[in-house]
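Customer escalation, tier 2.

The customer says the design service returned an amino acid string that "doesn't look like it belongs to this structure." They asked us to rerun it and document both sides in this ticket. The original structure tokens are below, unchanged.
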């Protein structure tokens, strides 16, 4: 692995300072320990694909719920498995679920891309997440001109389209630098990217779904949970929608203290997500997958 450039070293120094914010390192370590326990679950010796598939069901269900579209997990499973077909003209809730299902499925396919070409991964996730509601000319590309975004209003006004390219470039540099270094815990990198995508809102629609799908891909690609069985989206949902949005808003508007609050919250979400993965693994082991995990 090549030595980091001076610019990457300066960026890593900045990221390391964020790790030293109150509770951040401790929560990241707790997330690593919980994910390690999950990795060595007995069911995952031979049945990772089955458990990972159920994780994506649970992740899509939770991601849609965080966007206000709360559906029973058996309904999500039926759509993901193809047992149910999507209606030709879905209502807004089903459109959100359809985007969550597609983005969560696509997150598995961008795992090999996200460390080295994060903006390409973002584009692919957006195509998946927003296809139900966004015209083809706006899919997979950042906002331009006078295009705005009215999502995630609790985080304040979205940056102008003219600022998006600069911030996305900085986000790409962050991922590449952190992915090539052992100094920054994977939990911190994944959480930062999630929050940055939410704060930037680079797309006209679907930013929350994309942010959570990108986080899922990074949790796996960076080795926090290489099995893909943890459910980080469920970890965020378990703390409640208001707490999730509140900590994201603190990140977007609250300086170092707000960043630390979000990173600590995300660390707890990853612990909860690993626990959800353990419940899935328990159910896979005994052949009892169902809604009440």
């Amino acid at each position: 692995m090549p030595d980091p450039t001076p610019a990457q070293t300066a960026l890593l120094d900045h990221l390391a300072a964020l790790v030293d914010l109150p509770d951040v390192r401790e929560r990241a370590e707790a997330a690593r320990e919980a994910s390690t326990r999950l990795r060595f679950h007995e069911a995952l010796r031979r049945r990772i694909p089955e458990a990972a598939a159920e994780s994506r069901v649970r992740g899509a269900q939770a991601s849609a719920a965080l966007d206000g579209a709360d559906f029973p997990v058996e309904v999500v499973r039926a759509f993901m498995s193809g047992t149910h077909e999507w209606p030709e003209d879905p209502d807004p809730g089903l459109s959100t679920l359809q985007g969550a299902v597609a983005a969560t499925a696509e997150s598995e396919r961008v795992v090999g891309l996200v460390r080295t070409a994060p903006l390409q991964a973002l584009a692919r996730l957006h195509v998946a997440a927003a296809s139900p509601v966004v015209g083809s000319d706006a899919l997979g590309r950042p906002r331009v001109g006078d295009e705005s975004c009215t999502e995630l209003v609790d985080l304040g006004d979205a940056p102008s389209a003219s600022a998006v390219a600069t911030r996305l470039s900085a986000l790409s540099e962050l991922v590449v630098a952190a992915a090539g270094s052992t100094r920054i815990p994977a939990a911190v990198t994944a959480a930062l990217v999630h929050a940055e995508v939410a704060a930037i809102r680079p797309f006209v629609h679907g930013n929350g779904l994309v942010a959570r799908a990108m986080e899922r891909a990074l949790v796996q690609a960076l080795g926090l949970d290489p099995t893909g069985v943890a459910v980080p989206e469920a970890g965020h949902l378990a703390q409640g929608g208001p707490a999730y949005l509140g900590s994201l808003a603190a990140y977007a508007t609250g300086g170092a203290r707000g960043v630390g609050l979000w990173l600590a919250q995300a660390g707890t979400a990853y612990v909860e997500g690993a626990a959800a993965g353990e419940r899935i693994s328990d159910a896979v082991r005994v052949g009892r997958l169902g809604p009440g995990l």
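Tier 2 assessment: The sequence is consistent with the input. The mean pLDDT is 94. The chain is about 65% helix and 0% strand. Sent an explanation to the customer and offered a walkthrough call.
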